[in-house]
Design goal:
Strand order of the largest sheet of chain A: 3-6-2-1-9-11-12-10
Shape of chain A: globular
Number of helices of chain A: 13
Number of domains of chain A: 2
CATH topology of the largest domain in chain A: Carbamate kinase
Strand content of chain A: 25-35%
Oligomer: homodimer
CATH architecture of the largest domain in chain A: 3-Layer(aba) Sandwich
Largest sheet of chain A: 8 strands, mixed
Structural class of chain A: alpha/beta
Radius of gyration of chain A: 24 Å
Helix content of chain A: 25-40%
Chain lengths: ~425, ~425
């Protein structure tokens, strides 16, 4: 007998028929003798409906009230789910975030979990119930409802798994697992069977949408295996687990991309101590996260400073930078929103030299100019022109043999 | 400056535009220097949507889970309302039933309020907020969500008014107030300006739908004036208040009717001690409320026993009665679902003899046969054939001069 948390997203519980299918799936598993805590999102479409309603009331909806509104969505799915279990003769009880007592900070619409009380869940499990917990929501110490932001139900599921000591946290979704790259871009993309927490963290932060990055961080911290799998099949999906020896033999696990960034270049910046701080402090003060930074020396104590920001923050960042550039006597400010970041990720890079240079070479062979580069121990990211995104992804995916494990381009690795 | 509870029903908050209208109305009142606690229902149509969703999950939805589902409805309206106040530059905070701490018993879907903590509401009022409370919902001591059943938001409003010591509880609705009878049946129906708690209790229990009977009982107990009025005008509506001398000069305040009952007659019941108990105990054990009972003596120690039950319980009641009738050796069981109950209500009856006989006479003059009669100090009810309902209502309304106060049929009274 195992203790398992199973999380189902909004498309899996979009209407009563879909909820019944999930109920049957969970009850089959319970019938094999397992204990299950189910974590649910709101029905697909509900969050958009709420956002629309709120925007009709207030231009920038009050965050505290927005959370009250949003939290009603999971309340609907957990109650319907519990009814569905009972209709099949099973035992079930729903719990909202504040009923579990998932305590968070007061950062409304993007709160962070502080503490979870496992008591009520364990008592319901011990009494033979399927425990149905509303994902995405918590409560402050003052009793105000909060929500955990994007991917919040994944976070709820993994955090619950850690406090109740679950054997695994299963994240059910509408795809078969985590893929070597976006199958819409590259037809030879393959499901990854096993991947490390660190690789998954990189993939999630680089734009792979299947699993929220915070949930992976929690899973890593507490050593909870995550199993990302399809709601619609019984096939094994992708296991996100601790690193083991076998994994290191694979140089690259996945290729990902993001079109959510913009590039800003300040030219002819006087190359004096503290000048970088004068540019980046006001940007950071405005809550804008700078991703990559490159500094190119020029003649005459001048330097060009290039960096990327999220495209949604582009306009604000440009205003700030224009002001700063004038203040410090820099040259003109250039920019582009037509950029993309493509990345390769893999723990094997640590033991295989030349992965980065192979990536640069194959992109260059396709005539793709690399504008910026950033690397970590298990990742190489390149900023390129947006129009080359799909070509770059396919080129890297092929070059590292991800689509067809029998033919990696081994001869080229340093 | 006064402290007022204002309750708005589902049709008043059916969409963002309607909610904004209510926000403006409340803020005009706040602008006059008053403190306001707003109690809201779910958007019109939401409860039906939830009932439909639940019925698709489970034939008889689990009551605990049904309450979790239903309570999400007011969560939507209170958060949107608070946003609306803030959009207008006002201060507001929403509170759900469990956040106020409206403690109820565990009678899911029809829970009764045990205790309300005024602390959080008073603190928000003191800080200058419009306090927006979710109607219809509460929480058990164990932290399970409950709902208060039909008319529950009225109950929330009046109960809150009593614990915070409000000057008045205003119930906003889509009609101008309480009418002397149903305006759809009788064109001369008039709005009642003032009515006593006891009259309102009788009218509510006899079928007038504008105000829930439980809320009137609470208002009476704590002496909270209720003002039933229109959401769409500034006109005075109907004040439900303690009895005063002026009211007794009016013999009849209103005429009401109900088509929700069915009649059952057990003929040739042996007239022995305890036989009534043998019939009515199993009916009561089945949770069926018997309204009126008549016993007609026959020759030979036999009696006919006639009584009424809610039409929704008719089938179950007939099964039970058929069995009992066989057991006790009674004759055949007759019944009719084509009946209606028409009633006249007024505190003045206590001081004006002959009100009942006038009612019987005017109905008889119209050829309407009275099948059953029940009376109280301030009420006379008659069961008649359903097809005569509207005629009977108009006849009684005219006879007691409710449509035109200048011409009561005074000459006929006692």
């Amino acid at each position: 007998m195992s203790l398992v948390v199973q999380k189902f997203g909004g498309t899996s519980v979009a209407d009563p028929e879909k909820i019944k299918n999930v109920v049957d799936r969970v009850l089959r598993f319970v019938g094999q003798g397992h204990q299950v805590v189910v974590v649910l999102s709101a029905m697909a479409g509900e969050t958009n409906r709420f956002v629309d309603l709120a925007s009709r009331m207030q231009k920038i909806p009050d965050p505290r009230e927005m959370d009250v509104l949003l939290a009603s969505g999971e309340q609907v799915t957990v109650s319907l789910f519990a009814m569905g279990v009972k209709a099949r003769g099973g035992k079930a009880g729903s719990l909202l975030g504040d009923q579990v007592r998932i305590t968070t900070d007061a950062g409304h619409t993007k709160a962070r979990i502080r503490e979870i009380d496992p008591g009520r869940i364990m008592a319901l499990l011990a009494a033979g119930n399927v425990v149905v917990v509303a994902g995405f929501q918590g409560v402050t110490e003052n009793g105000d409802l909060t929500t955990l932001g994007r991917g919040g139900s994944d976070t709820t599921a993994v955090a619950l798994a850690s406090v109740i000591g679950a054997d695994v946290c299963e994240i059910f979704t509408d795809v078969d697992g985590v893929f070597t790259t976006d199958p819409n871009v590259c037809a030879s993309a393959k499901k990854i069977d096993r991947i490390t927490y660190d690789e998954m963290l990189e993939l999630a932060s680089l734009g792979a949408k299947v699993l929220d990055i915070r949930s992976v961080g929690i899973a890593k911290k507490y050593g909870i295996p995550i199993h990302v799998r399809s709601t619609f099949t019984d096939n094994d999906g992708t296991w996100v687990v601790r690193e083991d020896g076998e994994m290191e033999s694979r140089m690259v696990s996945g290729v990902t991309y993001s079109k959510n960034e913009a590039r800003i270049t300040v030219s002819r910046v006087p190359d004096t101590p503290g000048v970088a701080s004068r540019i980046f402090t006001p940007i950071s003060d405005a809550g804008i996260v700078v991703d990559m930074i490159i500094q190119n020396a020029r003649a005459g104590d001048m330097t060009d400073m290039t960096f990327t920001v999220p495209r949604t923050d582009y306009d604000r960042a440009m205003e700030i930078v224009a002001e700063v550039a004038a203040d410090i006597g820099a040259g003109k400010v250039g920019s582009s929103t037509n950029i993309a970041k493509v990345s390769i990720v893999g723990v094997g890079m640590r033991n295989h030299a030349g992965v980065a240079s192979t990536a640069f070479r194959v992109l260059s062979d396709e005539g793709i100019n690399i504008r910026m580069i950033s690397t970590s121990e298990i990742k190489v990211s390149c900023v390129i022109e947006e129009k080359y995104t799909e070509l770059a992804v396919r080129t890297l995916h092929d070059a590292f043999g991800l689509g067809d494990e029998a033919q990696p381009v081994e001869e080229d690795w340093g």
